[in-house]
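Thread: iron/sulfur cluster complex, take 2
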Amino acid sequence: MTVTNEPVPVPLTTRKDWSSDQEVRWCPGCGDYSILAAVQMLMPELNVPLESTVFLSGIGCAARFPYYMNTYGMHSIHGRAPAIATGLATTRPDLDVWVVTGDGDALSIGGNHLIHALRRNVNITILLFNNQIYGLTKGQYSPTSEVAKVTKSTPFGSLEQPFNPLSLAIGAEATFVARTHDMDRKHMMETFRRAHAHRGASFVEIYQNCNVFNDGAFEQITGKENRSNMLVPLTHGEPIRFGEDGERGLVLRPDGTVEIVDVASVGVENLLVHDEHRDNPGLAFQLSHLARGPFEPTPIGVFRDVERPEYGEQMAEQIEAATERRGVGDFAKLLRSGSTWTVG
Amino acid sequence: MSETTNDSPSEVLDRVVIRFAGDSGDGMQLTGDRFTASSALLGNALATFPDFPAEIRAPAGSLAGVSAFQVHISDHDISTAGDAPNVLVAMNPAALRANVALLPNGATIIVNEDAFDERNLAKAGYESNPLGDGSLSAFTVYEVPMTSITTEVTKDAGVKPRDAERSKNFFALGLISWLYTRPVEATQKWIEQRYADKPLVLEANRRAFMAGFHFGETVELFESNYEVRPAELEPGEYMNVTGNTATAWGLIAASVTSGLDLFLGTYPITPASDILHELSKHKNFGVRTFQAEDEISGIGSALGAAFGGALGVTTTSGPGMDLKAEMMGLAVSLELPLLIIDVQRGGPSTGLPTKTEQADLMLAMYGRHGESPVPIVAARTPAHCFEATLEAARLAVKYRTPVILLTDGYLANGTEPWRLPDVATLPVIEPNFATEPNHQEEDGSTRFWPYLRDPETLARPWAPPGLAGLEHRIGGLEKQDGTGNVVYDGANHEKMTRLRAAKVAGIARDIPPTEVDAQDGAEVLVIGWGSTYGAIAAGVQRIRARGLAVDQAHLTHLNPFPADLGAILSRYKRVLVPEVNTGQLSRLLRAEYLVDAVSFTQMQGVPFRAADMEAAIAAQFEHLNESAEELS
Ligand code: SF4
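Output below.
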């Protein structure tokens, strides 16, 4: 079924139109509130109809998100939202399909669905709220928690190397990869806008503070006074630099790795110029790995935005081509397409 | 029909069961399939049973690598692929050894004598050559040098001797085609089409096939050949169909009659994959097939498509059913139409991937946490898979519920002639999408309540995204009756649990009454479900031939059962329930109706034999007599 939108101009919506009547039930002070606000404020600007927008989620604190959006939505089961979204987006190319997920949902139980949705380039926008902890189950370490993290389930410290969500997405052949954080609404809105505009699978990691079980996990880089020295903004076509006065920057070393330098010592012209559209994912991977954790200078913004055919579109093209070749399916004909014989 | 005539008059048989057996690489499935096709064209009634190993290529010549194809052809209606082969074609010692126990005394064995060398005999575990040691004296054995003749006739066709040898299955096909007076033209034509792009292979196969046919005709080895005349089938147009093809076409038919786009989300698994293969060919019906990353994504994507207003389907076999359980529970909670097709195979775990079993009934019934009832439909024959699929789709769409369709490996790969349905008479499936808000607030404003049910079916409205004013959120959390808002209230949860159960139970009003093949005064009922249908029918026929009255009923709907089933069961003194599991239906019948159902079970990866069925039914009469004596 396909919905054709009448060519009348879409009525202007407001944030209120996009907010459901359900009471928001995250812990007071949770970073999820500011992400919800950013999305609800962005939607009217996107000029898309409410009824063509769908939010899907799995399980976890973040997964409550669809209940708060006055759109079509589904709160599904743990880790499976990308799979459900794949069925929806490929059969309904007319819809805007958003997937809201968390670090446990997307990277632990649902890891398989995430990587396959990315490599297929299904037309969905994935917002991953990374708080580096299990919130809903009350505080166990997650696949993005740092090594040696002491939690309820790891009283002697966790033993596991965490995932780097962006590196994982880039490795999974994602065509749009970005990072933002819950302390900067403007940056979130701009990043979500870009993700939404991208045709195919878009992956956005949002550093999100869980003030109950992992408070301050990103404070060292997202705190107001730390940001300019610790966040490295990526802007397409611009040299990558950061710091109070842009005094630090990135250079590409001959061995292919990326290094932080003083701009004064190398010269602006020798800084690495950011290129989102670079086909080879190597440099984007280097950038995603620049910091070993949220305590070192960390790039934010759009890491990668390349074009590749979208999965549902290609499916539709195969259907079109088959129909052109063989005509619209006629069931009576199909029944008699094999070797048949007549009795009586 | 055949232009090739034959001097000796052929003998007329009413039926024959032929089993082709060889190494997995010998092409026995293809040979059996072509023999079946030419028999179908002749108008015989037929049933087939492919029996192959799970390994793609077990070591050549080993017992584990034996692949067989059994076909039963007849001049009258038949219901099984036959208990015991009248003829075994054995391409090597292992094929003989693996199958000889199935043969009744007096059966015919045709062996490829070239393959009976020391090495192959050893690989099959023979200490002496059965062709010379008298161990086959109960049978008529024909030794035919299939490999050497095939190599000989193909040698100047330009094929290498090693490749030439591979055409020997066509020699066997030619020989059996002569022996049972099958027309050669159809097979020749098929060879020409199938191997059009490989001229050398085409020529080798054609020559081998004709050499086999002429061998039968000219070598005075066989006393005569045989004829099996056309069966009297109901008038109509027929094709020979496997259960998996019938299922795939049933899905396309459901899409056509409902106007819903078909979406299949699935992960390859034996013996269900052919449904995916078949559907992926028919994209001009708007069919979307999605080979997912795993079983969970298979059903998850289908559920997503259903949320979007498509006919969402997933296909699998036992192990995949285990993995899909959580998503089925979500579908129960979301109350969206969804079709789950389980082509059952032997379990537990990986079990017997290529062998049949019907042991997933309890899994279908109860295999989810919490109270999560799901309607269950089961197909009984390969052709019946078509109707059963349409019925499952009808229930799913009408009641906004996941429905499980059970078929099995025997139905999936087995074939029977299918009288093609008239497209105009296919059941129409009405999606009845919600089109407007369905609730008015006190202030006069209108709302859409996703769980405001149809008072008759208890189905909730289906409102795919796209319509303004009907935006709504659904999920796996318990929701309030009507509004669909998340609530954890105990009383509401109980109400919703009972509503979901009542909705499924209410389907009993919407399905046909139990069909009983009844006789006057019968005190014994044999009741089954699924692929045991043919074997039960054959057993019942044999008992009736003895002059005893016995009734047969076969269930298509297993949840809910037809409304009249309890009353029917209570009419009999003995109720026998044959199943290829440890007695799952019999336990359900006992629990539901307090009936003293007698379970008769086998689990050998193959269908029941009619003879065993006959014995099991006969035992019920003995029991009746005994109790009568006790009373007098
Ligand atoms: S537990 Fe943490 S992530 Fe969850 S709602 Fe509370 S603060 Fe937010």
